[in-house]
Amino acid sequence: MLAAPAASNAREYLQVFVKQPYLELHSGPGRGYPVFHVVARDESVDVLFRRTDWFKVRTERGVQGWATQWDMLRTALADGSPFTFNVGERSGFTSHRWELGAFAGQYGGATLISAYGSFSLNSQLAGELSVGQFLGKFSNGVVGDVGLMHLLVPEWRVSPFLMLGRCTLLPGAQVLPARRVQESRRIHEAQPERQGGRMETGIRVLLLTVTLAALSGCASVRNWYHHRSEVRAARAEAREEAEAARNEPPQDENAPPRVVEPEVARRKIKVPKIHASNIELGLHYGALSIEDFGTNPSYGVSAAYHVTEDFFFLAETGRSTAGRTSFETLGGNIQLLTRAERHFTYYDLTLGYNFLPGEAFIGRGLALTSAFYLLGGLGATDFAGDKKFTLNFGAGYRVLPADWLAVHITVQDRVFRSDLLGVAKLTNNFEARIGTTVFF
Fold first, then answer.
1. 201-250 pLDDT, tens per residue?
2. What is the pLDDT of residues 317-367, one digit of tens each?
3. Strands 125-135 and 44-51
4. Following DSSP, what letter does each residue of 195-234 receive, concatenated?
5. Which of 3.40.50.300, 1.10.3980.10, 2.40.160.20, 3.40.190.10 is the CATH number of 276-439?
6. Domain residue extents for the chain
């Protein structure tokens, strides 16, 4: 029985060579982490994976560290060609055909939170689909839009746009809390509003089709299809010319003519795909202080996407159960809320900012990369039979025992307007939690 070579079981990594005087390696993926090692010119490193603007590399001696993408652009492959990859800049963003995003605003006096997806047909025309939820004082509901978006000046960083689309509105019945405390301290049982299941639809026309087609740069679908075919053919021809120029040896005017023309086929190097580890999924557990209802355990899940070394987007949801108010405790058998209405459920979309990167030392021989971060975002809170628009603010501390594992300690405040106890006010609901996440 023959044993397979150890190299066959090892993962194939991309090998690049340093062409500058040296390549700096940082202890973590950020400018604030210190430089602890340098790689000399003409030495090679293996590219393990990428996280935002940084590459985790391993030297010939087994030293692992982080190199910035700008330094990696100055390295070369084994055949001498430059190491190229997608750089997170405006040209790379505008070359993508898919776009995802979120927005918030006012919709008929209610707060609207929506997410959208867009597919670009050309530099100016795109199809867009959005789904959102509006949270009003007397009614909540779901709204959806589908249409065409025309970007007027695509070469500008900030450009106006026009849309032609269709809107569908699904109003939902607003169920008021089962019991409220009024100013007179009397308890009233609220009745749910009676609403039918009728679906209201409407057409939102922001630009006539004739006007849209007449605008410069906005061609018909057939012209767009032919244009895309011409672009593909031109790109293929350019790639063939570049490959031919690359394989052709340089000509020296003073060199004597060759007696024998060598027929050596240039070996093409297969560049392995570099894994990007920018997605973070995890669980958390802690305590949530619901204003007027005490502090109780909370739990939830989160998902984050790291855009750069500084910024990341965080989507999370969690739940807790409210306790009894002092009025309920002193009033005996008075119950302001039912058991189901005491569930406190939140949904957040948050922007995070990493600052103060550093290292956490355990003993003398173990250093873990870490960072503090700030949080700020918006979302919705489902509590007391009502759904409220919510703003959240907070801060946290992240430490990484391994490249793929992180431990978080976070403190966050969720603020929304409530009139549950008879007086309209802004309520602050603080949560302190600890969680663990995994990078993918």
1. 333 333 333 333 333 333 334 444 444 555 566 566 666 665 665 555 55
2. 999 999 988 888 777 778 889 989 999 999 999 999 998 898 998 888 888
3. unpaired
4. ---PPEEEEEESS-HHHHHHSTT---HHHHHHHHHHHHHH
5. 2.40.160.20
6. 9-86, 93-214, 276-439
Residue 171, C-beta contacts closer than 8 angstroms, at least 6 positions apart: 139, 140, 141, 195, 200
Task: Locate 60 and state its tokens.
Answer: 């010939």
Q: Where are the alpha helices (DSSP H) in 206-356?
A: 209-214, 221-247, 326-330
Residues 153/159, Cβ–Cβ less than 8 Å: yes
Model confidence, pTM: 0.71
- Give the position of tokens 């109003």: 171
Interatomic CA distance for residues 11 and 380, integer angstroms: 44
C-alpha to C-alpha distance for 129 and 20, rounded to whole angstroms: 47
CATH superfamily of 9-86: SH3 Domains (2.30.30.40)
- Cβ-based neighbours of 382, under 8 Å, separated by 6 or more: 343, 344, 345, 346, 347
Q: How many CB atoms lie within 10 A of CB 402?
A: 9
